[in-house]
Amino acid sequence: GELAVNLHEGALFPSYHGTVRARGAEFTIDDAPSSFNGVDMDLVFEGERMYLHNASGAYGAINLKASGDMDLNPVWGQYRLTAQTTKPTHAMPFLKTVKARPPPYPLTAMLQATVHINGPLEFPVLSGAAHAEPAGATDGASTSRANLRRRVRAR
Description:
The structure is a single chain. The chain contains one helix and ten strands; from the N terminus they run E-E-E-E-E-E-E-H-E-E-E. Strands 1, 2, 3, 4, 5, 6, 7, 8, 9 and 10 form a ten-stranded antiparallel sheet that branches. The protein has one helix at 91-97; strands at 2-6, 15-27, 36-47, 49-59, 62-71, 78-85, 89-90, 110-120, 125-133, 144-151. The chain is elongated, with a radius of gyration of 18 Å. The mean pLDDT is 88. The protein is mainly beta.
């Protein structure tokens, strides 16, 4: 793709325009428990905002898709992103990927989740829901559901 960066006279933050296409990308976010790999996405830049289009890949053992946008200005910027699993993931690799403490008993369920990332770039809020199905279930019956809300500190 092509990306133009413009800093107009008197402006405190640049303006971005263009599209960056990534195919099979790998990257890590500081302090995140796992890395992203096999990521395909289009990053569309318009002014001080970046849009995430057609994003899919893996976060550790979790296959997911994501969409949304975020402001690029770190002073007042906000996240507005949503990520969803694209297929059920075995519970133990799922928990290891997100560095969650495993339960004190064997867990053989398959997990699916949706996570929303909102709030300031410096202090995003993660919220969402996950549900578990018995491993090998074919009827899609949900046996348990958990909601989450967590505020994280960006570095």
